[in-house]
Amino acid sequence: MPENSRQGYLKLLLGYAAGVGKTYRMLEEAQKLKQQGVDVVIGYFEPHDRQDTMDRVQGLEVVPRRKFVYRGSPFEEMDTEAILRRKPQVCVVDEFAHTNVPGSARAKRWEDVRMLLESGIDVLTNMNVQHLESLNDAVWQFSGVRERETVPDWVVKEADEVVMVDLPPQALLNRLTRGVVYPQEKAQQALENIFKEPTLVTLRELALRQTAHEVDIRHEPQDVSGLSPLVRDHAGSSTSKGEATDRLLIHITADPSTAALIRRGRRVADFLEAECFAVFVNTVEGLHSLPGPERQTIQKQLNFARNLRIETRILEGEDVAETLVGFARRQGITQIFLLRARERSRPAAFGRNLVQQIVWLARDMQVTVVAEHRRG
Amino acid sequence: MFLGYTSGVGKSARMLDEARRRKERGEDVVVGATQPVIPPAVEDLLHELEVIPLKTLDEMQVMDVQSILGRHPQVCVVDGLAYHNHPLSYHTERWEDVKELLDAGISVLGSVNLQYIDGYREKVESITGKHVAEVVPLEFLKSAAEIEVVDAPSATLLQRAGKFPGPAGETQEHPAAAQQQKLAELREMALLLTADIVDHQLKTYMQSHGIEQPWGTQERILVCVKAGADARQMIEAGQRNAERFRGELYVVNVRQGERSSKDEAALEKNLQYARAARAQVEVLEKEEWTAAILRFAHEHRMTQIFVHHSRKESWTERLFGSGVDRLIKSAEGIDIRVFPR
Predict the structure, then answer these.
(1) Interface membership of A36 toward B (CB under 8 Å)
(2) Do A38 and B168 touch (CB under 8 A)?
(3) Cβ B241–A272 below 8 Å, yes or no?
């Protein structure tokens, strides 16, 4: 049980690449808080060997990292338990999207941060927009980089404030070539990787739009009246303009692109403030009857959906299309999300593929078909 | 150009911090204009820089353009672009002075608030109720080599104004919700304005390098209307989606063959409805339907296409699939949303 009934305040600085100044800005803010007499500590920060950044740590209390050995190699992580014991008013935590070394108490740093918040500690943290789960496929598509460290959108949504840390891409590239961001050899590698101008410009635009959206959802006229930003109500997000609530249903299959479908459905549901469900239709009895690899894939997809706070269901039925559409109709679903059929699954004339069957059966509702994203 | 959504977000500090770092790297930097009221943090930064003082003409403070041109630094800082000059000055507005500096080969770091940008001034005024006389053209902002948005949470601003506790402070009186709401609206506007400028830069870059942009950074919705069907619901959904995503809405019709006057009237009603929904409306000329829609969608970087379910199923459709089927099959990276009739 948390000792303090007040949940900590989470402020998230959003950037679009390493080197835009997130850590710098965060430390600058920590210095200001300290001057005002606030009890602030650094829970974790990455100096990146940047002099300007290291200068900003001067005079701030740093909670030492937890050092440990995993499979014979030394590692360091944020010492969440030590911070909880120290119990400052405000804790500064770099790299919100970081994945902890296996064997840590929690898998993700954002989970550590939630622990701090639950005990009433305010947290100042940062991440890049490409770490947002629902943008994962889009980022991969235009940059060629598949981000492995992701933060579910609902975690970001729970932050009290999201603030954009902006820097024009050309200025960022100048910093990179001057060796301010990374040491020389790593900088070269970065230039060939994500630090290409169009990629940076695209990421920047995404970050700007995402921040605008985060501002928007926090300050809808109906939301603020008499509502403190410190105690936010998580009990269901009702639509603001009195429209009927949308209900989205995502069709889960063993297709590898299903993760992309789930992300897309989740993102659309978030923007439309819709409820979101996901179902798998099993044509045999019981999940255990499925062949091993398929069962594992389905379970993985269902877990993934649940982690994004999507309610999941397993249905049984011989006819997938009929079972899915029947369920949708009973549940008052307004929109079904499907993955486009792959070429090879296209049957001969006089037969419809699954997508065609569902589209045909669900003529009384909206059906969204998402093309699997290809690169190049 | 440093763009802020209101005063007090920290534009001056951010800009002068950059000026300081440039000076440390050996660039020749001067400050050509400062704000009338200077907060202590900004004062400290100014001490580290060379300042060319403003001139006073009939109690009016104007930038000393001649002295700056004579001094001819590499970089000149102009804190606050939206100022009238003295009526007898060579330029009537300060942003025109800045243009002169740029023409003389001097780089400028400048700052401006959203409320002074032409085209946004009225919107801001309708939110804040405050009228400002000074104006900076949107085109001038867009012509800047770089634009940087200076973002800060509205709560922090109110806190700076002494109306709200710090993040770690005790919960005191909550700032007027209305005030916070207004600031949030301005903030969102500044972020989206910057995003639009960035998007334009991206498009230009892609075109000049002959790269086709496969993926939209902004949601763009294309609603396909046909002559015979009432598309009102679909257009309404398109409008709502565009609004929620802060995206763009397009409504198109593909002209196919001769139409009955009844169909013609139904189509015109749909298009009128689309215009009322502030969609960009286009009628595409004779072409195979799927091809026409896809070509338009790719040209305009659509992310979603809205279309009606097929009404009935003919023998050819059974054999080769309906137009909707073909659209689903061929649309790369675009969601196809099929609507009930």
Answers:
(1) yes
(2) yes
(3) yes
Residue with tokens 């601003």: B157
Using the Cβ of A122 and the Cβ atoms of chain B, whether some distance falls under 8 Å is answered with yes
* Chain B residues touching A141 at Cβ < 8 A: 214-215, 333
Domains of chain A, each with CATH number or no CATH:
10-221 (3.40.50.300), 247-370 (3.40.50.620)
Q: In what order do the strands lie in the sheet with B335-339?
A: A311-316, A275-282, A247-252, A335-339, A366-370, B335-339, B304-308, B220-224, B248-254, B280-284
Report CB contact under 8 Å: A206, B217.
yes
Can you say how many angstroms the Cα of residue B135 is from the centroid of all Cα atoms in its chain? 17
Tens place of pLDDT for every residue, chain B, 341 residues? 999 999 889 999 999 999 999 999 999 999 999 998 888 888 999 999 999 999 988 888 899 999 999 999 999 999 999 999 988 888 999 999 999 999 999 999 999 999 999 989 988 998 888 899 999 999 999 999 999 999 998 766 556 554 444 444 444 445 567 778 888 999 999 999 999 999 888 888 888 887 766 566 789 999 999 877 888 999 999 999 999 999 999 999 998 777 788 888 888 999 999 999 999 999 998 778 899 999 999 889 899 999 998 776 666 666 566 788 889 888 888 999 999 88
Query: Which residue reads 């300042």 in tokens?
Result: B51
What ipTM, to 2 d.p.? 0.85
Residues of B in contact with A168 (CB under 8 A): 146-148
Optimal mutation site among A135, A208, A210, A249, interface B, most CBs of chain B within 10 A: A208
- Structure tokens given for B100: 């002169």
Distance, in Å, from the CA atom of B239 to the CA atom of A171, rounded to the nearest integer, reads 37
A208 touches chain B (CB under 8 A): yes
Task: Tell me the helix, strand and coil percentages in chain B, rounded to 5.
Answer: 45, 20, 40
Check: pTM over 0.80? Answer yes or no: yes
Domains of chain B: 2-150 (3.40.50.300), 220-339 (3.40.50.620)
Query: Cβ contacts (< 8 Å) between B158 and chain A: which residues?
Result: none
